[in-house]
Amino acid sequence: MFDPARTRMDALRLVRPELLAMLGYEPIEPVDVLAEELGVPIDRIVKLDGNENPYGPSPRVKEALADFDLYHIYPDPEQRRVRQALADYLGVDSEHIVVGNGSDELLELIACLFLSPGDAAINCGPTFGMYSFVSEIRGARVVEVPRRQDFSLDVAVVQAAARRGAKVIFLASPNNPSGNTISTSELEAVLSTGILTVVDEAYVEFSDRSFVSLVPQRDNLIVLRTFSKWAGLAGLRAGYGAFPKGIAELMRKVKMPYNMNVAAQVAILASLADVESLSERVQAIVRERERLSGELAALPFLRTFPSRANFILCRVQSIDAREVSRRLRQQGIFVRYFDTPGVKDCIRITVGKPEHSERLLAALREIGGSLAP
Ligand SMILES: Cc1ncc(COP(=O)(O)O)c(C=O)c1O
């Protein structure tokens, strides 16, 4: 007799076994879910766990989205206007540009294009969890080359792993969660091995060092960017990247034709027409980062690491980091707590508006006082 429950079990047995065994990506929760969990209104939540932009998008984005009247028509599968605007913004030819539903999608497509089951991808942790996630989904082997204590790259070990046949390396610059950048000489040393090098510049607007102008000269360098951080569009999912032309063409071939929705395309064009005011907000965040770093460093139980991004990594010393994060949470303040190699006992704090910093600092002083040995 037909038994629907049994059929479901049998179908599960057909799933690729490595995916059943794999740990999932650990995403952050949205603000309404956090507010509901705590039983407080949304405006009491200080959300400093997702490296989002507290100022939101340019007002021109909201106007452009309200005025747009072609929501019922499929988007341009080649995203010509957006790619041209990005090419003008970056100063590279639009043939180099690929856009995605967030830069996460581009990471997924890179893995799709380059990683067959059993291939090796280098991951330099502690870093953004998406690199190992997209590699593992493809059945690739993740070769870990841990960063040094100061979070700099161990270039000699990376080179050795590349020579042993790893195909791809993912490097965030500035790195999440440590906030440091890679240097030109480190990048050159990695590129010289011939490995496909993906530099993820999600936070580059908060720093002073980009490698995007090198892309047209190098055939193994990809630079990824996003509108999630500097332009306040994390919810719309608008990522892009500069690729060697041949790779860009293949990326556009294997992507879903309508991978970027029209709203994200409208928002990108409106943001690029308002770079000046978005840059002022970026500068406000950078100033606040420096001020907040100084205040955090003055707390006896925190050690801060220098950051070129919109967040600050702190090591919690002499008191329990998990407990600090838990007590902040009870007060409606959300930061990212880490318990993983290289960032044990660390919290990562997104730089918000000055008033967010004040609530955070007051809470930390109080928690530090009550937990002090
Ligand atoms: C290093 C890094 N790259 C990429 C992303 C994701 O960017 P997007 O929102 O464009 O998918 C993040 C998000 O936190 C990140 O930290």
Textual characterization of the structure:
Helix content is 41%, strand content 14%. It contains 14 helices and 13 strands. The strands form three sheets. Strands 2-8-7-6-5-3-4 form a seven-stranded mixed β-sheet, with helices on both faces. Strands 9-10-13-12 form a four-stranded antiparallel β-sheet, covered by helices on one side. The chain has a two-stranded parallel ribbon with strand order 1-11. The radius of gyration is 22 Å and the shape is globular. The site of pyridoxal-5'-phosphate has 13 residues, from helix 6.
SSE map:
Layout: H1 4-13, H2 17-21, H3 31-38, E1 46-47, H4 59-67, H5 80-90, E2 97-100, H6 103-114, E3 120-123, H7 130-137, E4 141-144, H8 155-163, E5 168-172, H9 184-191, E6 196-200, E7 221-226, E8 239-242, H10 245-254, H11 262-272, H12 275-297, E9 302-304, E10 311-316, H13 321-330, E11 333-334, E12 336-338, E13 346-350, H14 354-371
Parallel strand pairs: 1-11, 3-4, 3-5, 5-6, 6-7
Antiparallel strand pairs: 2-8, 7-8, 9-10, 10-13, 12-13
Helix pairs in contact: 4-11, 5-11, 6-7
The structure holds pyridoxal-5'-phosphate.
Pyridoxal-5'-phosphate (PLP) binds next to helix 6.
